[in-house]
Write a structure and sequence with these properties.
Length: 241
C-alpha cells in the first residue's frame, strides 16, 4: 500500500469541535464540547498530525480560539497546523506562541499578498502553508463566502515560485458533503507542480477515497466529517499509519 499523511481536522466554534457543510455556518453540528478529548483520541490511535481551524476567527478576521489551540498543542504531541482568520503578524505570533507548528493563510494570500509573502520570508516554507480553496476552478475566500476570479492552478504556481511548498487545497463543492474527493483536480495540480506537498481536503467519505488519493500520489489528506459521522473508523486508518 502506498503512503499518505493522514491529517484529521478539528473545526472550532466557541471552543467546541464542530463541522459545517460547504462552509455554511447555519449547518453547524457540534461533535464534542471538548476538542482536546478528540485530539487525544486521534493521538492514541497513532495519528501524528492535526489540522485545527478557528471558524470564529475565519468569520471575524482575527484569531479567536487560541486558548483551544494552546490546550491541544500543550497536552498532546500532535504536530498542529492552524488556520482561520489569520490576517496580521500579531495573529501569527499568537498562533505560534500557543503551540501551532504551522499556520495556514488563505484569504490573506488573495487579499494581501504582500503581507503573506512577508510571512513566507520571515518563517519559511516549512511553517507557512498556502490555503487554496476552490469553487469551480476559481479561488474562494473569507470562509468561502466570496468567490474571486483568480484561477486555482496559476494562483498556486505563483506562490510556489515565491517559496511555498505546502498547499491545502479544498474543493468547496465537496467539503462536508461526504461524496468523494476531487482526485482529478489534485492530479492536475501535481502534473503542473510535481514537487508540491499537496494536502487534499474535503469530501473524504470512506476508506476508498483515501486509497484513490494514494493511487494519485497525493502526499497528504485532511478529513473530518467521515470520522465524526462514523463512516471511517480510527481502526480502519491503522494500515495507512
Amino acid at each position: 500500500m502506498g503512503k499518505i499523511d493522514l491529517i484529521p481536522a478539528i473545526d472550532i466554534i466557541e471552543g467546541k469541535c464542530v463541522r459545517l457543510s460547504q462552509g455554511d455556518y447555519a449547518s453547524k453540528k457540534v461533535y464534542n464540547e471538548d476538542p482536546l478529548e478528540v485530539a487525544r483520541e486521534f493521538e492514541d490511535s497513532g495519528i501524528t498530525r492535526l489540522h485545527v481551524v478557528d471558524l470564529d476567527g475565519a468569520k471575524a478576521g482575527h484569531i479567536i480560539n487560541y486558548k483551544t489551540l494552546e490546550k491541544i498543542a500543550g497536552k498532546t504531541n500532535l504536530i498542529v497546523d492552524f488556520g482561520g482568520g489569520l490576517k496580521t503578524s500579531d495573529d501569527l505570533k499568537i498562533a505560534f506562541e500557543c503551540g501551532a507548528q504551522m499556520v495556514t493563510g488563505g484569504s490573506i494570500a488573495v487579499k494581501n499578498p504582500g503581507e503573506f509573502e512577508s510571512w513566507i520570508k520571515k518563517y519559511g516554507s516549512d511553517k507557512i502553508i498556502l490555503g487554496a480553496d476552490a469553487k469551480d476552478g476559481n479561488i474562494a475566500v473569507t470562509g468561502w463566502l466570496e468567490e474571486t476570479d483568480q484561477k486555482l492552478i496559476p494562483f498556486i504556481k505563483n506562490y510556489h515560485t515565491k517559496g511555498i511548498s505546502k498547499v491545502i487545497c479544498t474543493d468547496i463543492s465537496k467539503d462536508g458533503m461526504l461524496q468523494g474527493t476531487s482526485v482529478d483536480l489534485y492530479k492536475e495540480i501535481l502534473k503542473e507542480i510535481p514537487d508540491l506537498y499537496l494536502v487534499a481536503s474535503g469530501g473524504v467519505s470512506q476508506i476508498k477515497d483515501i486509497e484513490l488519493l494514494i493511487e494519485a500520489k497525493v502526499p497528504a489528506v485532511i478529513f473530518g466529517k467521515a470520522i465524526y459521522e462514523g463512516r471511517i473508523t480510527l481502526k480502519e486508518l491503522r494500515p495507512f499509519l
